Amino acid sequence: QVHLVESGGGLVQAGGSLRLSCAASGRTFSRYGMGWFRQAPGKEREFVATISASGGSTYYTESVKGRFTISRDNAKNAVYLQMNSLKPEDTAVYFCAASSGSTTLPSTYYYWGQGTQVTVSS
User: Fold this and answer.
1) pLDDT tens-digit profile of 10-39?
2) 69: buried, middle or exposed (CB in 10 Å: 19+, 13-18, 0-12)?
3) H or E element: which one contains 119?
4) 33 and 103 in contact (C-beta within 8 Å)?
5) CA 108 to chain centre
């Protein structure tokens, strides 16, 4: 069992930055691939980024490449999403999730956090 809690969301102007954190409980955190997803009002949840269990492999959705960076610290049971050059279309609730692999499909993630709101004003 892994319990996930996101933090770091907020209101920022376009072009600004935010760093999201996801704190995980449980001694098996380092076995899980981790992902960040987001959901805007009226839209389906979409994949943002994923990182392998070791942290050696990452993958991003095209719209955030070069702006967002996913990282993890297994000693601290945490995963992060550094978001730079934010755009209004990045506005959404952001969720972290844990999977047995490192995938883009929400259905392959076993555990989810409650989400943190990110709002980017123009």
Assistant:
1) 999 999 999 999 999 987 899 999 999 999
2) middle
3) strand 116-121
4) yes
5) 15
